[in-house]
Every structure is written in structure tokens, then in C-alpha cells.
Request: fold
Amino acid sequence: MMIELTRRQSLCLRYLCRQDSYSTVAELARHLDVSERTIRSDLKAIDAYVREHGGRLLRVPGTGILLADGQARRTRLLASLDGASVGVLKREERTATAAMLLLVRPITTFELIARACNVSRQTIIGQFDAIDAFFESRGVEVRREQGIGSYLSGDELAIRRCFVWLVTNDPERMQARDTALRELPATVLKEARALVERIERMQGMEFTDFEALRLPLAYTLCRIGENHLLAREAASTNVLDRELLSQDDPYLSALLGLLEADISEQRERFFAASLVLAQRTTGVGRMHRIETGEPDEATLISRDLIAALHELHVIDEGAVQHLIDGLTTHLRAAIYRCRNDIQVENELSPQIMVPIALLYDFTRKEMCRAEQRYGVCLNDAEIAYIAMYLDTIYESSIRDTVALSVLFVCAFGLASSSILMTRLSHAFAECEVYGPMTEAEAIAFMRGHDVDLVISTSDCHFGSVPVLTVDPLLSQAELEKVKSGIMQLSYSKMCSYFLRSYSTTVQDRDDVHYVRDFVEPRDIQVNVACSNWRHAIRLAAGPLLERGLIEERYVERMVSAVEDFGPYMVLTPQTAYVHAGVNDGTHANCASVLVLSESIPFGPHHEKRVRCIVVLGIHDKEHSFLLGLAPIFEREETISCLERPQIDVATVLGLHD
Reply:
């Protein structure tokens, strides 16, 4: 089987072919405008391709990557890339290409998309559900007219945000950018380039990612030229609020004045300005360039939040400065809304609160401190978005620390094993991967190395280390199983790391916390037989419901949350922490514990097993039972204790962190 590279992997290898010295992962990531995580994943396929063509890729920790062969070998590698199928795109790249064609063309056909992706028309038709889903999730509809083609229908601001997402945030943004560069008029691209260069001269700094600004500005100019204008109510976006950043802001005034030469409509200028303000520059931040005196409350709160994260893990602020800037901007807008009685409610809040429950509770506690210091009281919807920023900053900072150690066990020959490993490379992402090895070699290896997960082509057991058994043919379903297993294990490892950091750093270590500090004896049930997770949640909530601390609708919302978001509530091994929102029918801060006689499958697809259900009644943001209880249930001693048949209520009450 011949190794085929994606377009991005080909670009990466071309870059390496032209380098005479070691290139770091960071340099490759900057060159291709992708994350270091993406580069590390791509290098597995690139290494296999180079070896297949008789070359060697040297990877020296702390130094970088280098093609070890002479110029003749490099020339042959470049020739092989030139001779390869130029348009071989993976499924995600096809989705990005199709979405971009729909955005920039008034009418797009299956044939046109198929030619752009170098696949059959039927392949595109079969994949179109993913393209529909991409736009639908962003409030845009793909309409079709028989014999004519497909086109987009929806709010103009939503359509533009789709474009911005594709070229700035989408994992396949390089493919989306290439498509945009081919499809947008050359004159408009040239005009947008000149505009970005004028902005850089005005502010005395360059943008870190030039194309991330040039392409959205070019698309904006195209839409204006085609008379697709923003509605008047869209003049203020969630990135830039006209009232918040007023004309008294010297930088904004200068920026709007500069844009006026190219964009006559005021609301369109504000949108273009929001695109500029969202970009990161290579120098000092915008707020430091403007002599505004003392930092405002948003800046101070942002600093406090980042300092609190620092207590859990060292944050490389330079690497995440664009996220910190975004957090500060959001806080500034949220404070403005708060003080002008503009209450934001957003249906996305539960989708943020549930998957990042620990960071959400952490954010609630920190924002309580901000309320005491600065008199700023934000609602749950605002806090949910702040938590999203903090979670992204935190996860970006701990990525290397909590990377999974994965061992690949395969009974086949080296060539077959290497091909299987290459096909799994995208699922491995940032994992530290060892192998392929035989089962005997794996046993010996694990005597001296910590391994989080084993992926094997045959049934085998390695003590307490989980094993994912995959079919050697590696169907799409098998690949999805591997991705799901790695994602869940990675999430569990991150939660454990957070709880250990929180319990040893944030809390007062002279003060031991017991379950009895959070849960009353009458709200604990032990040795309960139940095989259905929905019924288990209702049983666990029973004592709180009976005393009127929560309502029936609160219980149903907890069940719905699991059905909607999956097993994210299983934050520590064998224990699920279920809750609903403050406004879902809870009358007091309360908690209950249900210990089952046997572990049961938990989640809509039975993704995890649990032995314990903790119900959290959340009434106000001043209290965080989750951050009090989770460090207790995360301990190995607690996990072992919950499995004892003779466990009683007194034992549960005495569990501590």
C-alpha cells in the first residue's frame, strides 16, 4: 500500500526538503499556520512516506527535524511529490473546500466541488450531510435547486462568520485558504493586501497571521461589492461594540478613518474593524499603545483570572496572548452589559458548562472574588463564555504535561505494522506513541515505562492499563472507536491533573475536607442495585427531591444533559457528577451521593462505567460543591473504598481529600 500525503503534509515535506539545518516543530507550525499539535501528528505520515522512498527523517528532541539524505535524494523526494495525485484530499479537507466554494460562488454544483477535490461526484453527494451540518450549526442554510446547483441562504453576518471561521479557526484552514485564494478575484485580494499593509504601517506593527486578516477583508469587500450588506442591527458585533469602544478611543478612531477610504458604510467599517481587532500583532498589545492611564476593570479581572490559573499550572502568556486579549475584550463587553442592565441569555451556555464542568466551577468561584473586589456581577451565560476562554488557555498550557502515552501492539510484520500505525496517526494527535511491538516486547517495555493506553490488533491484557482492540483492516468505524477512546482517556487525564493541582495548590492544605462537609447523612445511599444510568440519577436525586431542595424538572434536566452531551460528567474514575442549571428548579445548594452495588454503563452509548452518582444542586455561584467533592472522589483510596461490598454511610461521610 502506497503512503499518500495530504496537501498540508506535502507542503511540510517540501519545506523540509529545502532546509539544510534542523527545523523545529514551532517553525513548521508557523510556516504552515497550523498548531504544533497538527505538525506532530503530520510528521508520523511524513516519516512513513520518506522511509517508503528510501530516505531518513531525523528527529532530535530539543533540536528539531532534518532530512538526513543528500541533495539527490531530496530532489527525488520533491519529484515524487510533484508526480503524486495533486488533489488527494482527506474527508475534512473536502468539507472545507466545499464550504468555501459555497461561500464565494453564487451557485455551486456537485461537479464543481468534485473537480476541486479530485473525487467523484457521488463521493461529494455522500459527504454533503457534513457540509450541511457545518452551515446549519452556524445559522446558515444550504439550498438546492434541481438542475442549477446549491447556494447559501441566511443572515449576512452569519455567512461572513462562516468564512472567518474557515480561514482562521477550522482545523483545515490551510485548505480553505487555498480555495479562497483561487476563487476570490485577484483585484480584491490585491486591494485587501494593500489595506492590511496600510493598517500595519499605521500601528507600527505587523500582524502575526497576515492571511487570517487579508482573506476575511477581501471577502468583506466582495460581499459589499455584490450588495450583500450587513443588517443595521449587525453594526455592533460580539467582537466590537460601538458603545463600548467609542470614538474617544484613539486607535479605533484612527482605524475607522483609515477604513473609510475603502468602505463607505459605517456598519461595514465597524465589522472590518472587528476583524482587525481580533488579530494578534507581533509587538505590544493595542491597549499598551494607547495612553489610557490605569488599566480598566476588565484588564484587572483578566489578570486575576490568569494569575489564578498560574496557581494550577504555569501559563506561557506569550503563547496564549491572543486568547488573553480575547478574554479581556469579552470581559469589557460583559461589564458594559452588566452595568447597563443588558442581560445576555444564550442557549449555548449548557453546551459550554457541561463539557468543561471543572473549569466552569473554577471560573464561578473566581468571578465571585471579582464581584467582591470590583462590584461586577455577571450572569451564568457571561461566566460560561469566560470559562470557555480559561479552559482553552489552560488546556493549551497543559497539553504536553497530560499527553497520553500510547503503546501500539501488532502481531504482523514491520511493514504492515507501520502502515497501520500511519493510518492511526491522525487519531494519535499529540500522544506519545511507542511501537509497533509484539505482546512480549510490550510487557518488557511497560516494566520501565508508564503507559496510559494500549492499542492492539489482538486480544491481550496488561494489568490495569486499558486496551483498545482494533481490526487489522482498520475500518472507519474502528478508527472512530480509537479516536473516541483516546478523547475520553485524554479528558479523564486532564480532569485528574486539574483536581490534583487544585487540591494541593488552591485549597488550604492545613484544612482537610470530608464528604460530611458537603453532604448530609440522609442524602447518602449505599449498596443500591440498579442497572440503568437514567434510573440511577433519579434514585440519587430522590432524597433532595423529597425534601423540596430540587424540583422534578431539575432531575429531568440532569438526565437530558447526559443524553445531550454524553459522559462528560464522569470527571473522576467510576464517579459521575450530575447537575442542571441555576434556573432549572433548585432551591438550595445541596448534594447527594448514591453508591451502587455494581458498576453500570453510563452515557447514551454506554461510553463509561460508574459505581457512584453525585447529584449537585446548584443554587448560587458562591458555593462550589463540585470543586469540594471531586478531589475527594478522585483519590485512589476513595475509588477502592467505593468498591467494597461492606461500605456504609459512615464510611462515605468520612472520605476526605
